[in-house]
Amino acid sequence: MGNILIDSFSTIAKEMCMMYLDKEKEYSNITGVDVKGCDIRGFKDGIEHFFEIKSAMKDKNEKRKGTVMLTQLNKAILNKDNYHFILCRGYYGQNIDEWEFDILTVKEFLELCTLTTPILSYNYPKITHKETTRIANEKLINTMWEDFEKWKKVK
Question: Is residue 136 in a domain?
Answer without folding.
Answer: no
